[in-house]
Amino acid sequence: MSLYLVTILTNMTLISFIAISAYLILIVGEVSFGQQAFFGIGAYMTATSTALLGLDIVIALFFAFMVSSSFALVLSFLTVRLSGLYFAVASLSFAELLRLSLYKVEYTVETNSGTIGPNGPEGFQNIRWIFENNISPENFLVIALSSLLTLIILLIFMENSKLFKNARLVGKDQIVAQSIGIGPFFYRIGFITLAGGVAGFGGGLFALFNTYVEPSMFGIMLGVHGLAYSIIGGLGYPLGPLIGVFIDIGLLESVRFLSEYRMILFGGLVAAILIIFPEGIISPRLVSRIKRKLVKKNNA
Amino acid sequence: MEYIQISIDGILYGSSYSLIALGFSLVFGVMRRINLAYGSSLLLGVAIALWVENKLNISIIFFIPIVLFFCSLSNLYVERFCFAPHNTKAGVVVSMISSFAIWMQLDEISSQLLPDRTHSFPSLEISTFEFGGLFFRGDQILNIVIAFIIAAILFLAVYKTKYGIVLRAVSNSADTAKLMGCNTNLVNSLTFIVAGVIGGIAAFLVLSTESQVTPLFGFWCTLKGLVAMMIGGLGSLTGAFWGGLLLGLLEAHLSYQFGPISREITTFSILLIFLIIRPGGLMGVNIYKDLKSRDERI
Hints:
The complex is a heterodimer.
Chain A: H1 3-27, H2 35-52, H3 57-78, H4 84-102, E1 109-111, E2 114-118, E3 124-125, H5 129-132, H6 137-158, H7 162-172, H8 174-179, H9 184-210, H10 220-233, H11 240-253, H12 256-259, H13 262-276, H14 284-299
Antiparallel strand pairs in A: 1-2, 2-3
Helix pairs in contact in A: 1-6, 1-9, 1-10, 1-11, 2-3, 2-4, 2-9, 3-9, 7-9, 10-11
Chain B: H1 2-31, H2 38-56, H3 60-83, H4 91-113, E1 119-120, E2 129-131, E3 134-136, H5 138-160, H6 162-172, H7 174-179, H8 184-210, E4 212-213, H9 217-232, H10 237-258, H11 262-277, H12 291-296
Antiparallel strand pairs in B: 1-4, 2-3
Helix pairs in contact in B: 1-5, 1-8, 1-9, 1-10, 2-3, 2-4, 2-8, 2-9, 3-4, 3-8, 5-6, 5-8, 9-10, 9-11, 10-11
């Protein structure tokens, strides 16, 4: 495989984590414009634990998951009274506050391979985990892809669990959910927290792959993309967000003559897809129709 | 004395927030939808107008109507593309996300039209004057006067004219208005055009005060307008107006205390605090106590 293809595939894998985290929040019926901040927190956390503290990558990614999900927990508690548009704007402002505070974080250490540590607007440089462990781009792709696949398989298995079914009901109609004894409080907090953790995990991988991160990488446009992927992919099945990622990065960015106009095309494409498929390509309705057909076939 | 000067500067600066928030609030009031591409469509209007000006070399008197025309045109594009197809009840969130996606499209087109990072913008060149030891910037005074005039016109139009009655009818219940023979589609389009004109005026005033355009202007507009509107109370025209002034005032004082870098942080903190403590905004009712009166308000 050429290096170009490997890089594109790795980028697709990494941004899928944001798309999936946006998907998890959409399941409970909220729209979050702030997943990019948790991605950023995860990236900074992993960078700190591998480059500054010299921890193992598994522990570092675990830390990234825990810290970003605890930030998401804070957000979910702060916005417990809000929903819909109010929640979307609150998550946006929370994310921007987190990102702007990264500009103020300065803690640098001089080593013989250069300055490491978060350094305000210049970001966190020299995350040398890939070089120290001699990980080739192909190997890194395997690591990232296998964690993404694990996550998706986990989500597919959870799809039929009571937890996910209740969460979907909460997202679809809160009053109906409450009337049959499913309190939205627990599901909302749980899913927002989980989504933050997933984004943070992806951010951790992103920091390792990119070898340096800075606060301006985690701006609102990253969040727009992540959200758009899961919206056009649809909420029916965990593979939905990946369709969005594939359309944007796989088709538009990798084709050279299109990549200059990628944002223009993609923005219009999202709006057009939403006109044709208001619930996304793999909508819950489509999934239940397919399931019904499968059941009929088995019975016949 | 120093504090009075800062307060005056803040309020004067806040008047441009008020204007943008009025445009935002008009759209929200009529359609119960939020147009996140508002700032970007203003940026696009300004970018096309500048491009035309560069090609034709026109004077500032003709430049203003061109800005207004293209701002309302790009706003109409957003309405036709993101809002008109999603006019059912389920379309509230979809249209918000659709406008969110169009945001990046419009921003990208604008930055293709304005290839440099900063672009000069024709300035009005009104001098600063002094009054009782306090300094007033002439163009900002013009800004606040125009903001007051537009708020007054909008208020009269909404509450005293036939168009206003139709507008409030559509806002109250689009289905009922349709049954009574209102062309709700036309009303929505007109609302977006009016919001585009108001936004165009705001964009022109802000940019001529700064005498430059950057591609970040779109984000800036959306953000400040949104924050001002949410502080004031969603969908309330008076709320949007006072919210803008309050935001300007708070920003001026806090950035004086903590340095200019914290200006952005201040904006977001104010928004978050308001959303947590009083989601309905200053003028709004408590959104959870009284759902009906929230829907009836414009």
